[in-house]
Structures are given as structure tokens and as C-alpha cells.
Amino acid sequence: MTSPMPQIGPRTWFVTGAARGLGAAIVRTVLDAGDRVVATARNRAALVETLGPDSDRLLSVSLDVTDPAAARAAVDAALAAFGRIDVLVNNAGYGHLSLFEESTADDAQAQYDTNVFGLMHVTRAVLPTMRAQRSGRIFNVSSVGGIVGGASGSLYCASKFAVEGFTESLAGEVRDFGIHATVVEPGFFRTDFLEPTSVRHGSQPIADYAAVSEALKTFYDSRSRNQAGDPAKLGLALIALADADQPPVRWAAGTDAVGMIEAKIAGLQAELDAWRALSLSTDGDFDFREEAGVSAWG
Q1: Quick one: which of 75, 191, 225, 278 could link to 21 by a disulfide (CB 3.0–4.6 Å)?
Q2: Catalytic residue at 156?
Q3: Which of 60, 98, 142, 213 is the catalytic position?
Q4: Residues 272-284: what's their mean pLDDT?
């Protein structure tokens, strides 16, 4: 583990999707640690109901992350109140969990508008301030589904895979300005993520998929509110990562996430090894047959 960075006074965190779930837990944990928070969500009244009234360390701001102008306005409000933004937590998002053919193009657009483009809008609004400060931490909340795909995750996992690629690339672009970007890969956490108020399913049922679609929905319903992950402990972990001098670019949260990612790494290595000769054969001066020890293809 890297050594902590010295802090001068309380940090200011900017957290999206803070009215419930992981976002609300992160805000409470950060406030308990003595830092300041700008908590954002579509509905400011929901923020106040969940987190309480504004104070000298808490500012609640309405923000629809899909609106670039709203992102800029929320950042302006944060700077007017606290003068700086030290940590950005892009947490706003939802899961569209359905088989691909049972979802629509509008479903895909909506999933990306929030999980990918919304995250980018907020990041774009915050980065000029962090660049001017020559410091900052960005935590983009992805999912274990951002590195491990699965049935019913065609839209959700695709959006989170995009967050992974964006964050890994961004980390290299901003590192010289003292800004570190980390993609957070939670497994199943005990929130309302799988509740009907959050999760969305396909709107175009297809008879051929009926059995598997129902089985997947039953599985998710049974996991709701029974997940292993503790949101408050994730909040504490983010504080530890914010303190780190050199935080990781990717960080898995939860024993289930670690296990699934380890299995993915092993699978990738096995597949790469099994097809290595054919992969190398695409270079112009490479003889696949000689490498493979065969006289002909097949």
C-alpha cells in the first residue's frame, strides 16, 4: 500500500447519484471523516430527505448528469460554496438487465446517456478545476460487469466496459497534472440497485428467450437486499484510495468481484495461449505453419 498524501484542511468531494444506494453511503462516510461534500442527484428534495439539510460541510445540488449544462452549473455551485473540488465520484447510473433482443435501441441509448455520457459530462466539467489545482482524484464507479460480461448484461456491461476504457485512457492523460483516475469495480452490494425503482428489464419479450429471461429475473430478485457488499465499507475504502499517493487505475470491491476478475484473467490467459500461433500469424513475416509445427492449415 502506498503512503498517504498529506492533507491541508478538509477535502471537497463531488458525488453524483447521492440520493440513495452507494452514493448516499459514500457521502455519509466522507462527512463522518470530516471532509466536505457536494452531493448531487436529479431530485434535490430526495437528497435533503436522505442526507439532511445543507451545512458548512454539505451542499445538495440537483443534477441530471445527461445534461452537460447542468453538470457545469453544479460544478459552479460547488466552487462557489467550497472553492475547490478534490475528489470526484462519478456514481450516478443504473442497470438495464435484459437479453439483447428483448431490449430496444432506445434502451441502449438511455443506458449510455447516463452510465457513459453522463459520467463524461461531469468529468469534463470538473477537470479544468483539478488541472488548475494540479491535484485531484477521480473515481468512476463501474462494476465487476465492466470487466466480466454475462447474459442479461449486454447493455449494462457494454456501458461499464466503456467506463473502463475511458478511465484507463483518461488516467494517462491527466497524470502529469497531479490528477489520478481510478475505475471502481464493485461486485454485488447491499443497495436498491436490483429493486424495481432502479433496475430496468427488457420491454420486448421473445418467446424463445422466455425461460432464460424469467430465470435471470428470478435470480436478480432473490439477490436484492441480500448482497454481500457493505456500502459504508466501500465509502471507507474510497477514502483510503483518496489518501494514497499512487492509487490504482483499477480497483475491485468485494470478494465476489475479486473472484470473478481472477477467473476472467485466467480465462483470458488460457484463450490467448490456445490461439497464440494463429494470433502471431497475422504479422506479414510470420509463418504460422512453421511456428505450429504443421505442414498445412487445419
Answers
A1: 191
A2: yes
A3: 142
A4: 94
CA-based angle 247:189:31, to the nearest 5? 60
160 included as an active-site residue: yes
Q: What is the 3-state secondary structure (H, E, C) of the chain?
A: CCCECCCCCCCEEEECCCCCHHHHHHHHHHHHCCCEEEEEECCHHHHHHHHCCCCCCEEEEECCCCCHHHHHHHHHHHHHHHCCCCEEEECCCCCECECHHHCCHHHHHHHHHHHHHHHHHHHHHHHHHHHHHCCEEEEEECCHHHCCCCCCECCHHHHHHHHHHHHHHHHHHHHHHCEEEEEEEECCECCCCCCCCCCECCCCCCHHHHHHHHHHHHHHHHHCCCCCECHHHHHHHHHHHHHECCCCCEEEECHHHHHHHHHHHHHHHHHHHHCHHHHHCCCCCCCHHHHHCCCCCC
Q: Which of 89, 112, 74, 80 is nearest to 29 (CA)?
A: 89
Does pTM surpass 0.85? yes
Active-site hit among 156, 159, 209, 220: 156
Does 3 participate in catalysis according to the annotation?
Answer: no
Q: Tens digits of per-residue pLDDT, 151-176?
A: 889 999 999 999 999 999 999 999 99
Q: Which of 60, 98, 160, 209 is catalytic?
A: 160
Percentage above 90 pLDDT, the chain: 74
